[in-house]
Amino acid sequence: MTPDTRSMFDPKSYSKVMRPPLQAEPLPGWCYTSEEFYRREIEQVFSRNWICLGREDALPRVGDYRAFEFCGKKLILVRSAENRISLLDNVCRHRGTLLLTGSGNTNVILCPFHHWGYGLDGVLRGAPAMEQTEGFHKSDYGLRAYEVTLWNGFIFARLVPGGPSLEEAMGDMDGLVATYKMGDMTCARQKVFTVACNWKLFIEVFMEDYHLKAVHKSSIAGTYTAPEPLERLNGDFATIFNPHQGTSALLTGEQHLALPPIAGLTGKAAAGTRYLFFYPSFAYACTVDCMWFFEIYPEGPSRTRVAMNMCFPRSTVARQDFAEKFAAYEQRWDVSMKEDLVVLELQQQGLETDQYSPGRLSHLEPVVGMFANWLIRHAVEMPRDARS
Hints:
By secondary structure, the protein is an alpha+beta fold. The protein has helices spanning 5-8, 30-33, 35-46, 166-170, 173-177, 199-206, 212-215, 314-317, 322-351, 366-381; strands at 51-55, 64-70, 73-79, 85-89, 103-105, 109-110, 117-118, 124-126, 145-151, 154-158, 185-195, 237-243, 272-278, 282-286, 291-298, 304-313. The strands form 3 sheets. It has a 7-stranded antiparallel sheet, with no helix packed on it. A 6-stranded antiparallel sheet has the order 11-16-15-14-13-12. Strands 6-7-8 form a 3-stranded antiparallel sheet, with no helix packed on it. The chain is globular and about 70 Å long. The protein starts with a helix and ends in a 7-residue tail after the last helix.
């Protein structure tokens, strides 16, 4: 049952969630179903933290752009003439017309209504027939630009300025994954889909082992052994390492189709898969031969658009047998994702009833509890500078 708004944002309502992992309960159902809680997440979690918007190689040429919606904002991701990635408002400063749709390449961002033209940096370059408008200066009417930072080929953006840099927020994560050389990888396939569940449910299932034997018993469960104990690291992220033979990116019976391992892997990275979750929404996995990650675009309390991206070293993609062997990787990802989506939509349906009362977390779900603690600190307690 959803409480009144005052109780929903009272830290005391989450006292059982904030207990030590093996004493804690999961988040209450309203965190996955309430419109009010979702709006708070958009304002204080998604807008104020670093969000992954895909890979830099998706925009390889100057002028390449992608128009999309995120957190209720119409945005353009574009590679500018300075060969930088920029994130700009996609609404004309004149009378509010949407500037671009879809994706493509352009040398000017041109409003289809009155042909105000913006450079790829968002600066207003042309405004026809505005010479007689008193006090009008093009320099006052550029498109709003947001913070963008690149990391290992990924694009990260933050809608509200201020707070820790991306490097500070990541803490130890960069050093933990350096051996995978993700900056040298390229995206082999992206699959975009919508799932009828809350965005948190999608990430939580990615970061727990408890469901493997039930949901993936005939597909990937046999690949994994028990995860190693959680590592104590600095930064706004959690990680799980699963030791195993071969690659976790193939079904159990298709290991003979494995592509070459990533060159120079060291330590235990060469013998397992590392799952990582950089809060609030960047979830990815690095295994011995590839990496895959998710872009998360919430579309309401019970609907999430996801872009699943599958990346390999450029030298692997250049192999003559890549397309043939990659088909087996695609099958693995498609099968396991379909299995997850079925139970996620069932979970969302259960949470939307008034019958759910939180149970307890198992030792195979520690990240679910860790993230719940982080979320409460940011969406409920809120940093002091976010209250103004």
